[in-house]
Amino acid sequence: MSSDTLVHLVAGGAGGTAGAIVTCPLEVVKTRLQSSVATFDDVRPKRASPTSTLTDRSTPTKDSAPRGLFRNLKLVRCLKYIVETEGPRGLFKGLAPTVFGVAPSRAIYFSFYSTSKAFFNDRLPPNSPLVHICSAGTAGISACTVTNPVWFVKTRLQLDQRKDGSLSALEVAKKIYRTSGVLGFYKGISASYFGVSETIIHFCIYETIKSKILADHVRPGVLEDRSTKDFVRFMGAAACSKTIASTLAYPHEVARTRLRQEGTKYRSFWQTLSVVAKEEGYRGLYRGLTAHLIRQIPNTAVTMCVYESVVYLLMRSRVDHEAAE
Predict the structure, then answer these.
(1) What is the largest distance, in Å, between two alpha-carbon atoms of the chain?
(2) Beta carbons of 69 and 45 less than 8 angstroms apart
(3) Whole-angstrom Cα distance, residue 253 to residue 7?
(4) Using CA atoms, how far apart are residues 12 and 10, in angstroms rounded to an integer?
(5) Taking the C-alpha atoms of 302, 259, 148 and 175 in order, what is their torsion angle to the nearest 10 degrees?
(6) pLDDT for residue 4 is more than 80
(7) Residue range 256-278: average pLDDT?
(8) pTM tops 0.85, yes or no
(9) What's 107's DSSP letter?
(10) What per-residue confidence (pLDDT) applies to 229?
(11) Crossing angle for the helix pair 129-159 and 189-214, nearest 10 degrees?
């Protein structure tokens, strides 16, 4: 492994871990909103009785309840509901596998991204959108394949609503293996692969904005000084690019969560999207989007800022060390 790859591996792990810890409560809410088995009973809109639907067609029926839920659930009320019914620890269910998974996932992603970018820059127009697409796609598929079992266990933990929080990651893993074998840990990976499109869009936009930020004071082959203002701008670029990418590709998140929950109703990526759209309307494909964006925007901003900072500091340290010699 080259020193440059190691730098990106360490920086990616540090950035991913920081972002995951800060935004874990929002991840729990988002996962439960995406699911069809987890509930927020005290904050659901009231369902109409059969007789009322005859006189008022605008009143939600059982079939339209998910749409009302999508519109009316408030993020703060959902967080409060979890604390009241499961205690503060409920907000951090799945944190252990998240931290355990996000560090290698981000490390793998950024190291593959930097390596792939160097590879494609030598064979395609340097730093072109095509290079960013190929690099992000390669890194995304690699990271998904390696870490899907961890994210599967995390999702099952976050869907558990027992107050004592007694369910452990090991118990979940044993149950999955007992019922479905090794392949059971890869249920939903098709949705993850489709989700790579989100990563591609995100990095294409991010790299474009970043290049414009650095356009005035970057010389090829020279490690220029970076200011605090540059890193704040990187955070803004990451937030902007992730918002656009997440909104466009969001339905894969709902499909992935449904595929990972217990039961056999959802069997494949396209079948899951079809069932959700048929039973809950197309808005059902965007359940939990608000919570997802509220989590993803700061998560991505923190992750990219820490990543860029660590890469810069490690590179600067290496340059200074070589100069001293």
Answers:
(1) 84
(2) yes
(3) 30
(4) 5
(5) 120
(6) no
(7) 89
(8) no
(9) H
(10) 85
(11) 130
Structure tokens at 38: 């987890």
294 vs 315: CA distance, rounded Å = 32
Query: How many residues can be counted in the chain?
Result: 325
Could you give the CA distance from residue 117 to residue 112 in angstroms, rounded to a whole number? 8
Q: In whole angstroms, give the CA distance from residue 268 to residue 58.
A: 33
293 token code pair:
């964006």
More confident residue, 43 or 253: 253
The alpha carbon torsion through 188, 194, 198, 201 (nearest 10 deg) reads 160
Output phi, psi for 262, to 5 deg: -70, 150
All domains of the chain, ordered by start, with CATH? 3-324 (1.50.40.10)
Instruction: Give tens-digit pLDDT for 142-196.
Output: 988 888 888 888 888 878 777 766 678 888 899 889 988 998 888 888 888 988 9
Interval 18-41 mean pLDDT: 77
d(CA 152, CA 96): 13
Candidates 289, 236, 309, 299; CA nearest to 71 is 289
Q: Give the model confidence (pLDDT) of 190-226 as tens digits.
A: 888 988 999 899 989 998 998 888 876 655 555 667 7
Tell me the C-alpha distance between 275 and 280, whole Å: 8
Tokens of residue 133, six digits: 């697409």
